[in-house]
Amino acid sequence: IPIPPSAFLILLIDLGTDVVPAISLAYEKPENDIMKRKPRRAGTDRLVNRKLISFAYFQSGVIQALEGLFAYFIVFNDDGLSPSTLNNLDANSFFATSVQEDQRWLIAQKGSFNQAADMRVWFNNESDFTQFFSSQPPTGFIEQTTAVFDDLPSTPGTVESSSLLASVPGTPVNEQFNNMFKIVGFLTEQPSCLAFTCEVNNELLNNDVSCFDSSVNDGPVYYTGINTGELNDNIGDSGCFELWTNEQQTQTLRNAQTAYFVAIIIVQWGDLLITKTRTLSIFQQGMWNWVLNFGLVLETLLAVIIAYVPFIQTIIGTAPIRFVHWLPGIPFALFELFYDEIRKYLIRRASRKPEFKLGHFLDEYTHW
User: Fold this and answer.
1) Nearest-5° angle of CA 154, CA 244, CA 12?
2) 222: β partners
3) Rounded to whole angstroms, how far apart are CA atoms 322 and 313?
4) What confidence category does residue 158 fall into, taking pLDDT thresholds of 50, 70 and 90?
5) What pLDDT is attached to residue 125?
6) How far apart are the first and last CA of the chain?
7) Which of 25, 42, 48, 224 has the fewest Cβ atoms nearer than 10 Å?
8) Could you tell me if 82 and 117 are in contact, meaning their C-beta atoms sit under 8 angstroms apart?
9) Residue 64 has pLDDT above 90, yes or no
10) Of 104, 82, 128, 112, whose CA–CA distance to 191 is shortest?
């Protein structure tokens, strides 16, 4: 799948948003049961031991990873690509690539207009469209060669004047692009999700799927919606397809990566709170560490700056996300707090009841 967090965002988490919260733990007051604990065994006890590794990587770490991926997949789904379409999507490094010769149009097919796409394919000479890269294209289609395909603009221009089409806003002028659009409609047997038109017998057919039938229309089909954003109001039950430009791919990937980053920040709220104590409940310990409270506010402000300040976005490669995409991390942060409160309660109970085996198990393998 396209890489969820970029290397830059990972560094920002490790060296930016995580620094002050981590330092703030040094200002945490001692737990009130600290004198009841046995002294550390200098010869065998280590700062980093298997209990800490188990907790950090296989408990808290798993929750954070799942939360980030959950937010990442939600953004893609909301933008029109379901999680099932992301498998091997970037196998050839085509998705949102900055390398011009590797840029491709992504065709996404939807079962209905309001659903995310459940099928996708790259339009290139290695896809199922090879029959259209031959010297004998089907009737009604012009030759579509690899060389010409590579020259397809990512954002088609608009027609200036052409009989009936002069009155249609957003009509693409690139002949090869219009041919590609007709090929896609012909093969998918679906209309596009955005508006399109064609000219048949001096009459405009708007959002009519017969435009893709070469026996009806031996001319091009114009994907006007790609320039105007106008929706197809005549989709019906057959579903529809979308053509994703490289710019659209890049925008969605940046949105998803930013949502992943924000989700990690949110779960760090819970992570920071559960590391305040080793066995005591956070309700027993309280929230009187104001350096820690400041750290919670600071990392949230940094997330806002990284996501919404334009020149920061340009440097880091982030994008502004909708408020709803801040929410996926909250249930995971609450779950982590709830899980840890239960874990600590069972460990405390085991200290009072030697026969309580579950608590002793948790104490042995999770009490870091």
Assistant:
1) 95
2) 197
3) 15
4) low
5) 47
6) 35
7) 42
8) yes
9) no
10) 112
Q: Are the C-beta atoms of 185 and 234 separated by less than 8 Å?
A: no
Contact 85, 118 (CB under 8 A): yes
Question: Tokens 């919404």 sit at which residue?
Answer: 308
Enter the pTM of the model: 0.83
Strand pairing category for 240-244 and 119-123: unpaired
- Tens digit of pLDDT for each residue in 178-189? 878 888 888 888
For the stretch 263-299, pLDDT in tens is: 999 988 988 888 888 888 888 888 888 999 999 999 9
Q: What is the 3-state secondary structure (H, E, C) of the chain?
A: CCCCCCHHHHHHHHHHHCHHHHHHHHHCCCCCCHHHCCCCCCCCCCCCCHHHHHHHHHHHHHHHHHHHHHHHHHHHHHHCECHHHCCCCCCCCCCCCCCHHHCCEEEEEECCCCCCECEEEEECCCCCCHHHHCCCCCCCCCCCCHHHHHCCCCCCCECCCCHHHHHCCCCECCHHHHHHHHHHHHHHCCCECECCEEEECCEEEECCHHHHCCCCCCCCCECCHHHHCCECCCCCCCCEEEEECHHHHHHHHHHHHHHHHHHHHHHHHHHHHHCCCCCCCHHHHCCCCHHHHHHHHHHHHHHHHHHHCHHHHHHHCCCCCCHHHHCCHHHHHHHHHHHHHHHHHHHHHHHHCCCCHHHHHHHHHCCC
> Measured at the alpha carbon of residue 216, what is the angle toward residues 214 and 219, in degrees to the nearest 5?
60
The HSE-up count of residue 332 (CA atoms within 13 Å, CB side) is: 27
**Which residues, in sequence order, are CB contacts of 364 under 8 Å at separation 6+?**
51
- In terms of Cβ atoms closer than 10 Å to its own Cβ (0-12, 13-18, 19+), residue 125 is middle
Residue reference for tokens 């090869």: 176
How many Cβ atoms from other residues are within 10 Å of residue 64's Cβ? 23
* Cα 96-15-270 angle, rounded to 5 deg: 90
